[in-house]
Amino acid sequence: MGDQQKTRITVDIYGQQYAIVGTESSSHIRLVASIVDDKMREISAKNPTLDVTKLAVLTAVNFVHEYIKLKEEHDRLLQQTKKDE
């Protein structure tokens, strides 16, 4: 990462400002923040009594669950592609 240009951007997630530093574009960082914000608001609407910490953890659990499902599907498709070759 030493030679890559770093982007620093302030985003709003669930009413809090966060300074994010990364090598991705500003638009990518904003998109990620927006998706996290949307998911937190979605979960909060269904569970209005959750405090912010529990809401953040539940949001993280949801994203990891989705990631694992997508990774399993990706691996399955790779295996299927190899069988078809």
Which keywords apply here?
flat; two-stranded antiparallel sheet; alpha+beta; Bac_CellDiv_Activator; 85 residues; cell division
List the helices and strands and how they pair.
Elements: E1 7-13, E2 16-22, H1 26-46, H2 52-84
Antiparallel strand pairs: 1-2
Helix pairs in contact: 1-2
Task: Give a structural overview.
The structure is a single chain. The protein is of the alpha+beta class. The protein has one domain (7-84). It contains 2 helices and 2 strands. The protein has helices at residues 26-46, 52-84, and strands spanning 7-13, 16-22. Strands 1-2 form a two-stranded antiparallel ribbon. Helix 1 (26-46) crosses helix 2 (52-84). The longest helix is centred in the last third of the chain and has 33 residues, at 52-84.
Strand order of the largest sheet: 1-2
Elements, N to C (H/E): EEHH
Q: Average pLDDT value?
A: 94
Q: How many helix segments? A: 2
Q: Kindly, what is the distance between the CA atoms of the first and last residues, rounded to a whole number of angstroms?
A: 36 Å
Global shape: flat
Uncertain parts: none
**Residue share in helix:** 55-70%
Rounded to an integer, what's the Rg over CA atoms? 17 Å
Number of domains: 1
Structural class: alpha+beta
What percentage of the residues does DSSP assign to strands (E)? 15-25%
Question: How many DSSP E strands?
Answer: 2
Outline the biggest β-sheet.
2 strands, antiparallel
